């Protein structure tokens, strides 16, 4: 799969969302959302609680109808398509398994509803269970499965219906942290192996960065940026995205003659003039134990060891209190609270510039 420089999709669109708005009473929950998802792509809708992610997913699935705009699947308008005829499969947050049916019964349920004959159901259920490695548990009931196994049943139940698009609403939220990480990798690998197109909903930025080919970052019903995880992280479109996708420091600086001079003396080219806000990620600042007169200096306020890295809060001129993350080995290892330090931006190319007051 190739992506354009702007993170735009290259290839055949399976799903096209055109200017979709959804209004509940006085609340505009979706505000002119447009998005295009290509064959085999994994796209994540990312944003804080209440920003409209689930509503957009529900509109794609047909559980809600847009008040304005269109949703096309394989170039066909979905509005006239009844919910049960839409070529989509939904994996819900709660998995919504039937407790009185076995694993095989749950997975075959949709096929039975569609009137598939017994032999066809058995064959397709067996194939779906094999895909998610649950063939040995076909006769078990959901209450006797682990969280991860229940999720795999929920996925198999959708896969067996061979949807064009897989829709997953916070599918990992019921799992503990360790299992969540392994299921994320497992599910991504499975979707890629089957060449499926999938849309995930999550409010967890790490999950979005791990899982996705592209991320659509939402705020109050609007899509703020659609891009590859790397672009969203390295070049966030605005301060909101910068802050939501990873930790960030914002420096209030001045742009003059097409550039901004950082507190360490390095320059960043700027299309803006006057007061600007420059974003620096915590891992893009190097700390040194020997501050130089006239250089960018600071004092370590707090430090916290988090596995392989140390997080520092550094009081500095030209930046208020900064967050800095350093590997526990190397130059910054062992800097103690109260130490005077030098600061340097490691790569100014990764310091996006925003207008003040945007
Ligand atoms: N049927 C409804 N009637 C009225 N308001 C609704 C309805 N469904 C959703 N909303 C409101 O729309 C907004 C967006 O809800 P939505 O569930 O899409 O957000 P979300 O980003 O998925 O949040 P979460 O992560 O908490 O699920 C919320 O303010 C919610 O209260």
UniProtKB/TrEMBL annotation:
Molecular function terms from GO: ATP binding
Database matches in Pfam families: ABC_tran, TOBE_2
Organism expressing this protein natively: Aureimonas populi
Gene3D superfamilies in UniProt: 2.40.50.100, P-loop containing nucleotide triphosphate hydrolases
Family: Belongs to the ABC transporter superfamily.
Occurrences of domain ABC transporter (ranges): 15-245
InterPro entries assigned to the protein according to its UniProt record, in alphabetical order: AAA+_ATPase (IPR003593), ABC_SmlMolc_Importer (IPR050093), ABC_transporter-like_ATP-bd (IPR003439), ABC_transporter-like_CS (IPR017871), Mo/tungstate-bd_C_term_dom (IPR008995), P-loop_NTPase (IPR027417), Transp-assoc_OB_typ2 (IPR013611)
PANTHER family for this protein: SPERMIDINE/PUTRESCINE IMPORT ATP-BINDING PROTEIN POTA (PTHR42781), SPERMIDINE_PUTRESCINE IMPORT ATP-BINDING PROTEIN POTA (PTHR42781:SF4)
Name recorded for this polypeptide: ABC transporter ATP-binding protein
UniProt KW keywords: ATP-binding, Nucleotide-binding, Transport
Ligase is among the record's keywords: no
